[in-house]
Amino acid sequence: MAAVDTSLPAEPTGAAAALAEAHAQPHALKLYGGWFCPYVQRAWITLVEKAIPHQYIEINPYNKDPSFLALNPRGLVPTLAVPVGEGEKKPLYESTVVCEYLDEQFDGEQHGERLLSGGPYDRARARLWIDHVTGKIIPGFYKLLQHTPDKAYSLDDARAELHKNIRSFVNEMATDGPWFLGHTFSMVDIMLAPWAKRLWLIDHYKTGGTGIPKSGEGDETWDRWNAWFDAIVERPSVKATWSADERYILAYKRYAEDTTNSEVAQATREGRRLP
Ligand SMILES: N[C@@H](CCC(=O)N[C@@H](CS)C(=O)NCC(=O)O)C(=O)O
C-alpha cells in the first residue's frame, strides 16, 4: 500500500508563512492546519476575511498524533480549538462547520458583514450551493487530478463531469458583479476558492488540463466563470493563505500519480463519498 504523505514540507512558505508567523503567539482560539490543505484554506480565509484574532498551529494530519486525535477523532484538518469559559477549550472540525461557527461567533462591527447573510431562504440557498461545491465540484476535481491510464473512466469523462458541475454552479451566479451573489462576497465564494486556486495543478499534471475555455473562447457561462475565477484568485485573503506554487506541485504529485493514501484520495479511488 502506498504511503501517506508524512514527508511533506513541514511549514508554509511565501504569503502563508507570513500569515502563520503573525498568528504564532498563543491565543485561546486555535486553528490546527496544514499549509497544503484546501479545507484548511477555507477556514484560514474566513479568519482573514473577518480579521479574527487566533493562533495558527501547523500540523501534519497524516501523522495521527494522539493529542490531535483527542481533539478530532476523524484525524483531519482543519480542527479548531474554541475557548468555552475559564481556560477551557472544545474542538470543532469539518471545514464548513468551522467556517459557519467563525462567521456567527465573530459578528461585531470589526468583523465586517456576515459571510452567510440574508433571511432563511438566502442562507438555505447559499448552503445548497456550498453543498454542490463540496459534494459535486470537489470530488470532480480529485477524480480528474487522480486520473491514471488504468482507470475505468477516461480523462475526457472526468473533465466533462467537472465542467458539468462547474457550469451548473455558474448558472446560479448573479450577473451584476464578480461573486456568486454579485457584488457581495460570501461563504459560497470561500467554499470553492481553494480548489479554484489549485486548478492550475490539473493543467500542470494532466494532458489537456482542465479544458476550461478562456474568456471569449467559450460561451457566456465560461465567461461568467472566468470573471469569478479572476476575482477569487486575486482576493487578498486567498493570496494571504497561499504558499509558494512549487510547494503545491510537490504536494499534489502523489494525487496526480494516484499514489497517495490520504483519506480524500482513497475515497476518490474507491468512488466513495469524500471524508
Ligand atoms: N470534510 C473535511 C475534510 C478535511 C480533510 O480531508 N483534510 C485533509 C487534508 S486536506 C486531512 O486532514 N487528511 C488527513 C488524512 O487523509 O489522513 C473538512 O471539510 O474539513
From TrEMBL:
What SUPFAM superfamilies does the database record attribute to this sequence? GST C-terminal domain-like, Thioredoxin-like
Does the entry feature the keyword Oxidoreductase, yes or no?
yes
Q: Which residues form the GST N-terminal domain?
A: 27-110
The GST C-terminal domain covers 119-252
Q: Which UniProt keywords apply?
A: Oxidoreductase
Q: Which Pfam families match?
A: GST_C_2 (PF13410), GST_N_2 (PF13409)
* GO MF annotations in UniProt: glutathione dehydrogenase (ascorbate) activity; glutathione transferase activity
Q: Name one GO cellular component term.
A: cytoplasm
Q: Which InterPro entries match?
A: Glutathione-S-Trfase_C-like, Glutathione-S-Trfase_C_sf, Glutathione_S-Trfase, Glutathione_S-Trfase_N, GST_omega, GST_Omega/HSP26, Thioredoxin-like_sf
Which family would the database say this protein is a member of? Belongs to the GST superfamily.
Protein name as catalogued:
Glutathione S-transferase
Organism per entry: Emericellopsis atlantica
